Amino acid sequence: MKEIIRAAVAILIICGVLFYVNNQLDKSSGRSGSDTISVYNWGEYIDPELVERFEEETGITVVYETFDSNEAMMTKIEQGGTSYDVAMPSEYAIEKMKENDLLIPIDHSKVPNLSNIDPYFLDLPFDPGNEYSIPYFWGTVGIAFNPKLLDGQTFESWEDLWDPSLKQEVILVDGAREVMGMGLNTLGYSLNTKDEQQLQEATDKLKTLSPNIKAIIGDEIVETMRRSEAAVALVWSGQAADIMYVNEDIDYAVPKEGSNLWFDNMIIPKTAANVEGAHKFINFMLDPEVAAQNADYVGYSTPNEQAIELMDPEVTGDERFYPTEEMRERLEVYKNLGLETLGKYNELFLEFKMDAQ
Amino acid sequence: MNRSSKLSKVYLALVFIILYTPIFYLIFYSFNSGGTMSSFKSFSLEHYKAVFADTRLIMILINTIIIALLSALISTAIGVIGAIGIVYLKNRKSRNALLSLNNVLIVSPDVIIGASFLILFTMVGVKLGFASVLISHIAFSVPIVVIMVLPKLQEMSSTLIDAALDLGASKREVLSRVIIPYIKPGIFAGFFLALTYSLDDFAVTFFVTGNGFTTLSVEIYSMARAGITLTINALSGLLFIVTLLLVLGYYFVTNRTKNPLRTGVPK
């Protein structure tokens, strides 16, 4: 009995010491101020130095937390019990959150740096007038390929994926809208179409791709391409940048028929406790110098016009990640299709997947 | 005979190799000076430095350990009391019912436990954070402790208690001087098992973390989404060492408690 009590006391003492150490760490990193905001972002999606700089400049302490999917984030916010002040969801998630009344409108007078954003990225269909959201990063959907494993093929057109020489070489991202969008784009249709005839045609077209398909997977695409285990993949430009960062052989192309333009955006959830601080944080992230440093660290494309001026022209001049205006015209942002049409997309995508196996 | 024992040794070695290779592969690459797991360039400790330079990560590590220690301690206390209560229940039916209820908690999926805790906490209005994680960890550890302590209690002869009572021990003394010392190995086993369960739990914790409080497994999961960086390898390596120390600690503690018993009760 004595021994057990001794052990229990020892554990409590260890816990006490650890608590103390944690508190000291907390203080030394300047996270103990009374004015705090909590930021909820994707993993590895901000330069940590910038968070520190924001804390120094404003005296606001940032509690930083990460999520791994739009769905996980929405659940946490919807359930309450947390008070995130700023979050960075993708555009389709913003539409859903708007419908569910989970957002606080952004006061544009408190975000003067909004003028730094390229007007091309403002006032988009998922959030007219940017009432609730400010673009954070953006990108496209395209084809990542490894020229070393191919003999001189290029991917100017989606049709090139159907080339018989690519047998069992193509990886697709496991997303209904991305893959169906690819099918629709190949045929020259809009990737927001509600026309059942067009959707059916796209599905039939996709089915003829089956012999070339190696796999339909999620985040593993990045590792697979890095290790040169597959020659071609349908990916988001962000993933392509991640792949190319490690494997320099890889190239990326957005086919000429058009593709999807996607956004991650800063929003203020309904549960926010420090709306004032949240505005300050958003404004800070829109500062040209800050946005440039962040884009440099994360490796995604920034919508900040002024920041692009400050960045390495070799990066921003790369038309694969900063497409020219002419190329941009062919890009489409996903529109909310409504439950019924979205169900149709999912159903047809499933049909295609069954066929591919 | 000789041949079959050799074969069984080879088999055993093979199983251990299969179980341990992934872990050592991961730890091996944590010393890679290159940025990926595709090729080993040269030995370097830079990824470990990166872990220690990141105060946020260190704080998460410490939080994880605090949660594990506290939840294991509290659930051991509750579990031991519960196990004693269950064993000395007079009514066989309700005893079996209680035991089954306990076992249901062990086999029910973590995801369901996590989701139901999330709903409960938000309904009651508990803020997600340290308290919510601690409470849910205690909750899923208690049944494990009960299971570890029960066999010890069942193998204990009831004559021991009768003898103690005959010799004038009060009920409290019976508990603290007879029952608890006898089941001590079970208590320690329960504690360490609860500790490891709490350390590596992902599913339940994933649901109940919030407001800037996370544990290591949840954080690693979020980090891994952006591609596995070798910092994760280094962190996992550290965690592996902590677990190893725990197992060693468990080994020494149980050995120490076994010895006096062995000399005291001749077989």
From TrEMBL, chain A:
Spermidine binds at E44, Y92. It is found in: Periplasm. Keywords: Periplasm, Signal, Transport. GO terms for cellular component: periplasmic space. Its main location: periplasm. InterPro entries: SBP, Sperm_putr-bd. The keyword Transport applies. GO terms for biological process: polyamine transport. Gene3D superfamilies: Periplasmic binding protein-like II. CDD domains: PBP2_PotD_PotF_like_2. The keyword Transport applies. Pfam families: SBP_bac_8 (PF13416). It comes from the Bacteria. PANTHER family: SPERMIDINE/PUTRESCINE-BINDING PERIPLASMIC PROTEIN, SPERMIDINE_PUTRESCINE-BINDING PERIPLASMIC PROTEIN. This is ABC transporter substrate-binding protein. It comes from Paenisporosarcina quisquiliarum.
From TrEMBL, chain B:
Keywords: Cell membrane, Membrane, Transmembrane, Transmembrane helix, Transport. The keyword Mitochondrion does not apply. Gene3D superfamilies: MetI-like (1.10.3720.10). It comes from the Bacteria. InterPro entries: Bact_Polyamine_Transport, MetI-like, MetI-like_sf. GO terms for biological process: transmembrane transport. PROSITE patterns: ABC_TM1. It is found in: Cell membrane. Residues 61-250 form the ABC transmembrane type-1 domain. GO terms for cellular component: plasma membrane. It holds the Pfam family BPD_transp_1. It is a multi-pass membrane protein. The keyword Membrane applies. Coiled coil: none annotated. The chain crosses the membrane at residues 12-31, 57-89, 101-124, 130-150, 228-253. Belongs to the binding-protein-dependent transport system permease family. CysTW subfamily. This is ABC transporter permease. It comes from Paenisporosarcina quisquiliarum. The lineage of its organism: Bacteria, Bacillati, Bacillota, Bacilli, Bacillales.
